Amino acid sequence: MSQSKKIRVLVAKPGLDGHDRGAKVIARALRDAGMEVIYTGLRQTPEQIVAAALQENVDVVALSSLSGAHLHLFPRVTALLKEKGLGDVLVIGGGIIPAEDIPVLKAAGVAAIFTPGTATAAIIEFIRANVKRT
Amino acid sequence: MFKEKVLKELQEAVPAWEARVQNTLTRHPERSPEFTTTSGIAVKRLYTPLDIAGQDYAHDLGFPGEYPYTRGVQPTMYRGRLWTMRQYAGFASAEESNRRYKYLLEQGQTGLSVAFDLPTQLGYDSDHPLAEGEVGKVGVAIDSLADMETLFDGIPLDKVSTSMTINAPAAILLAMYLAVAEKQGIGFDKLDGTIQNDILKEYAARGTYIFPPDPSMRLVTDIFAFCSEHVPRWNTISISGYHMREAGATAVQEVAFTLANGIAYVEAAIKKGLNVDKFASRLSFFFNAHNNLLEEVAKFRAARRLWARIMKERFGAQDPRSWMLRFHTQTAGSTLTAQQPENNIVRTTIQALAAVLGGTQSLHTNSFDEALALPTEKSVRIALRTQQILAYESGVADTVDPLAGSYFIESLTEEIERRAMEYIAKIDAMGGAPRAIEQGYIQREIQESAYRYQMEIERGERIVVGVNKFQIEEEIPQELLKVDPAVRDLQIKKLKEIKAKRDNLAVRQALKELRQAAEGEDNLMPPILKAVKVYATLGEICDVLRGVFGEYRAVESI
C-alpha cells in the first residue's frame, strides 16, 4: 500500500498586523487534517516568507492579513516565489479582504481568497484539490 | 439572603418540580442535551433562591458606588450621567482624521478615541521599508509632533476626553499629546483621557510589541509615576481583555487574564517604589462585549467585584478609588460576519446592551461592515445611533444594575468570579502574568478556546446566523471605504519637510539625553517629552530605545 507524502503548508502573516487568531486556527485545522504545518509568526516580510517556503520545501503558502495591506503584500509573495522557481507552490490568502480586491489578487497568482466565515473544512478541501506539488 | 424556611421548602419543591418536568421531557425533549455558556459553564433549566443561598447581600453585592462595587462604581450610574459614547476612529492622514473627529463631535459623540496605523503602533516612521502598504490603513499615521498638532487642530483638549490606543510607544504619543496641550495653552492638570499602555496583552494576543518585557514594564511604570505627578486626571493604562477575547478567550479567561495582567502592573509599580493609592485610581480597564448577553453582564459584575477584593485585600489599598474597576467596552469585532452584514447591527445592539447592563463607563459600538472593510461614515453613524437608542429609548439606563437579584445572573457572577480566581491562582503559581506569557501559557489557553469555538461552528453545534445556518446568495456589497495609497507619499513628504525645518542640533542633543536616561534608571517621560517638542520623530525616538532595550521576538507555537 503506497502512502502519499504529507502536504506541507507554510502559514504566514505578512505585514505588521498582529491579528493571528485566524492564522493559528487554520494552522491547527490543517495539521489535524494530516498536513505538515509551519507557522511563521507575526510581521514577516514577503522576502522572509519566500525564504521560509524555500527552506521548508512547502507545497502551499497560506497568507493572512487583516490590516488592509494585502494588495501590496500578497502579489509580492507570489512574484518572489516565481523568481525563486517556486511558481508551482499553491498560494492562498485570507483575512479582511474586500470582494473587489479578490480578482486583483487572483490575477497576481493567489489561487483563492477565504474571507471571514469560511469553514476550515472548505480550505482543507481546496488545498487537497488544487495542490500542484507532491 | 433568603429566610431559612423558604430555602428549606425549596430544597424539596425544586426536585419535585424537576420530577414533574420529566414527563414533559419525554414528550417534548429540549433543544440540546446540555446548555453551556461560552466559558463552558453549565446552564441549568431553572435557577431559584437555592442557587444563591450562600450570597450575602452586604458582603457580595453592596450598594452602587460602594465596596465591592458589584452593582457599579458610581452611586447613581446612568441616572446621573450616561456612559461616554466613544467611537474608535482614525483614518489615513491626520487631516482626514481631524475631520472625522469633528464630524463625530458634531453628531453628539462625547469622547475621542484615536486609532493609529500599524507603523505608528510599532514605532516606525512612514518612510520605513516595513511601513510600505500599511501607512494610514488601520488608523492615523503619526510621525512627529507636527502630525499630532494637525490631528487635534481646532479641538480644545480641555473640552474633550481622548483615548489613544497605543501601547509599545505609548510614552511617545502621550508626550506628543501633552506637547499639543501646552501649545494650546492648556495645563496638564486639565487633561482627561486614556492611553492603552497595556503591553502584556500585546505579547499575549494583540501582537504590537517592540521591546522585551522588562524595559516595556519600565516604560509602563514610568508613565504611572510621571502622570501621578503631572497629569493627575489621565488614565495611565487601559488594562485590556478585549484583544484576548477577540483572539479567542472565553468570558472567564478574559476576566482572569486581564486581572492577572492588572496584578502584574500593580506589583511592578509598587516594586518601583510607588504608593498603591497614588496610582491605582488611574488604572482603567477595557473589556469586550460578546454575544452571550447574560454571561457578559455577569462577567462585568464579577470583574468589578474581584478587582475590588484584589486591590483591598491583596494590595492593601486604602483609597476607595483604588478599589474601583472602571472600564471601557467595545462590542466584539470577531462576531461580525461578512455574510448578510446588516445582521451585525443586531449583534452589536445585543452586545452593547450587555455592556450597559454591566455598568460600563464608556462604549464603542462596531460598525456593521467591519468584517468587510474599514467602516464608512454611514455605518459609523448607525453604530453611534445604536448607543443613543439604548440610552434614550430603551429605559435600561434608568435604574442602577437592573439585573441584580436575578437568580441566574447572581449565580453566574459568582461562578465566573470563582473560575477566574482559579486561573489567577494558577498564574500566581507560575510567577505572575509576565512569566505565564513568556512560557506561552496564556497564549495556548486562548488558542485552545479559539479552536474549540471554530470547531463547534463547523460541527453545527454553535449556530452563526447567515454563516452556518440561514444562508442566502448575496450580491457583492458596495460602498466600502478605501484608503488612498497616496497617503504614504504625502506622509513621507511631510517627514522630509519637518526634518529640513527643525533644529537638528537640538534633536541630536535630545536623542542623546534620551539614550543616557534609557541606559540609566531615570524616568523616561521627561527626555521623551523634550525630544518630541523639538520634532524628533517617533521612529527616531524608538530607534534610540530599540538600541538600548533590544527587540522582542516571540516564540510561536500552534
What number of structural domains do the residues of chain A give?
1
Q: In CATH, what is the class of the largest domain in chain B?
A: Alpha Beta
Q: How much helical structure, as a percent, in the residues of chain A?
A: 25-40%
Most extensive interface, chain pair and sizes: A-B, 37 and 45 residues
For the record, the CATH architecture of chain A stands as 3-Layer(aba) Sandwich
Low-pLDDT stretches of chain A are none
CATH H-level homologous superfamily name of chain A = Cobalamin-binding domain
Distance between the termini of chain A: 17 Å
**What's the name of the CATH homologous superfamily of the largest domain in chain B?**
Methylmalonyl-CoA mutase
Rounded average pLDDT of chain A: 93
User: Strands of the biggest beta sheet of chain A: in what spatial order?
Assistant: 2-1-3-4-5
Report the CATH topology name of the largest domain in chain B: TIM Barrel
Radius of gyration of chain A: 14 Å
SSE class of chain B: alpha/beta
**What is the helical fraction of chain B, as a range of percent?**
40-55%
Number of strands of chain B: 10
Largest sheet of chain B: 5 strands, parallel
